[in-house]
Design goal:
Elements (H helix, E strand, L loop, with lengths): L1 H6 L3 E2 H7 L5 H13 L3 E6 L5 E6 L1 H4 L2 H14 L1
Antiparallel strand pairs: 1-3, 2-3
Length: 79
């Protein structure tokens, strides 16, 4: 999910659902809640009609980009 959120500034629930194949609403919801609780994902609620919520990466999660890039390079090299 971090990878999907890193592609854009922010994403709505439906956009995340489309971007992550075969994930259930329940799993996506619980994962987002946990990441928000851990401070890795920010949740911004827009109080307008109709209301909506957008999710984005916190700075602490953005700092992990170098780690994920290294893991990706390792995987591409050895798999």
């Amino acid at each position: 999910m971090k990878y999907e959120l890193s592609k854009q500034e922010s994403m709505r629930f439906g956009e995340l659902k489309k971007a992550i194949p075969n994930i259930s609403n329940t799993v996506l919801t619980s994962t987002l809640k946990e990441l928000v609780t851990q401070g890795l994902v920010l949740r911004h609620q827009f109080n307008e009609v109709p209301p909506h919520v957008e999710y984005s990466l916190a700075e602490s999660a953005k700092a992990l980009d170098i780690v994920f890039q290294a893991m990706s390079e390792w995987g591409n090299r050895y798999l």
